[in-house]
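ugh ok so i messed up the first submission bc i forgot one of the chains. this is the corrected input, ALL of the components this time, i swear. 644 residues overall. if the numbers dont match what u have on ur side tell me asap before i send this to the collaborators (the ones from the other lab, u know who)
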Amino acid sequence: MAENKEIAVGIDIGGTNSRYGVVSESGEVLKHDRFPTRSYPKAEGFVRAISRKIKEILAEFEGYTFKGIGIGAPNGNFFRGTIEQAPNLNWEGVIPFVDQFKKYFSERVVLTNDANAAAIGEMMFGGARVMKDFIVITLGTGLGSGFVVNGDLVYGHDGFAGELGHTFVYLDSGRKCGCGRRGCLETYASAQGIKRTVFELMAENTQISELRDLSYSQMTSEHIYHAAQNGDRIAKQAFDITGHYLGIKLADAVVHTSPEAIFLYGGLAKSGNLILNPTIKAFDDHVMNIFKGKVSIRSSELNGKQGAILGAAALVWKRRKS
Amino acid sequence: MAENKEIAVGIDIGGTNSRYGVVSESGEVLKHDRFPTRSYPKAEGFVRAISRKIKEILAEFEGYTFKGIGIGAPNGNFFRGTIEQAPNLNWEGVIPFVDQFKKYFSERVVLTNDANAAAIGEMMFGGARVMKDFIVITLGTGLGSGFVVNGDLVYGHDGFAGELGHTFVYLDSGRKCGCGRRGCLETYASAQGIKRTVFELMAENTQISELRDLSYSQMTSEHIYHAAQNGDRIAKQAFDITGHYLGIKLADAVVHTSPEAIFLYGGLAKSGNLILNPTIKAFDDHVMNIFKGKVSIRSSELNGKQGAILGAAALVWKRRKS
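and heres the new structure output, hopefully the right one now
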């Protein structure tokens, strides 16, 4: 065997299931599995159980140097190593997640929110390998974002920077958002957002659509994607509207940090050109002159791979300039 | 005399006049003056003349160590040392301003846009001395902004980051902006913006106002400020509306970089509570929950001082992490 290769464990915390895997420094997921988050009413129990599991797996990687654990979690705070009031998790309050893992591991344990992990993953293993200024947008149930400036992730003074999903499409009006306000981008551009748009369109017009046979509870963004691929006009229009809002708000976002690229990652981003084309069009139509032609909007190179695991693992290797 | 103290020259380029001064490392403006920008049809002539003037003045500072020249300029590009297509300057095209100065000075010459210079000034000599994440908003003829993240100014991949004046208050509607689009924040929150609001209010209602005696060309934001201080209702309402739009868009801005403070600098910011109070109210009413109570909005500590000169000079001492 050659000299020891480095590995890290990436964990992506989800409401129902978490996914974890062993990742090489070159970005290969050597082994991965899922773990039932919802079976653990307390975070301590979850951490104890998944730590045991990870130690079992690491035993198979003799001859590798284990560098540590990276965790992407909803409402994860990098500075404090905590998960704070995450609405989709069973665990309430502020959870000292990193400290809990450190009971079982002496190696580096790093945590941040899932969109930030995606951005670090893009920088280490994806399309941003040679970039210092870019944005990753995660289009899942909600809309998350990770901003990289001058080669460093932007955490802000409190660790909560990058909440692009909660910028206003409309002021004091528009759709009600989970954050308690109205008109947030995430209520338009996300898996939930596109579904709301489909329901608005079904109410507004009389076009025939296979989506009319699904209840609100049943419908997912995959249904909308497949309908659009079958030529369903309501589904296609819903993608156009979603991209329209997203593109305009990305035009607003670039004036803050002037990135050279914006990567779309996650569920809805996997729809490819259906979401990319209208987003790029709206962006080009609205972006300020001095940024025109400079910002590339594209699919994340981690889409379709174990991107969330890769991003979380990348946290272990990526150290912050200070 | 004690050991040599450091000094730098700060130059603030304006369309009509430029201001320059000699600044000590502790932020004292030891000497300052103005220089007629508009008298020089070519940038080369301006640079030659002001350089001669600066050398004369530096001769008075024997026993000090001269560290270099910092320049704040409209459309100034830090990476390239250029002034690019500045609409308010006589000089057209892309001007290699730093290179032109380097013909006359062997010391460090640094250039950035005026809002970025204000942000560096606030960090070295103002209210942001102990901060790593903050925003400076300059409320002049237009609205400029400088973002500091993790102790470094955000330049973006091309040097043009921080154009908050050109985010949308309204999508595809609202006031026509100098940038060619509609609905930009700067058309509402700036010296020009508040004047447009006054004219809208004079058209809409019949309230008596001393501002009705001034033409559009005559009226400045100082007139509006003085009218508001005299209890003029249209003027006061114009400040409230200006602050309202500014506060809402600042609520949008903080989700990008999560600053601990936002400083208002420049002409309109000198109106103090007239602009601060409605801005803070609108911000508090609209900011996302997780940022509530965390972000302080206040007047720049450089207001009323030779702030633009201080900011420009600060560029010489502030080096970028890399």
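quick check: Chain B has two domains: 5-124+306-317, 130-299. that seems consistent at least. The first helix of chain B runs from residue 43 to 58.
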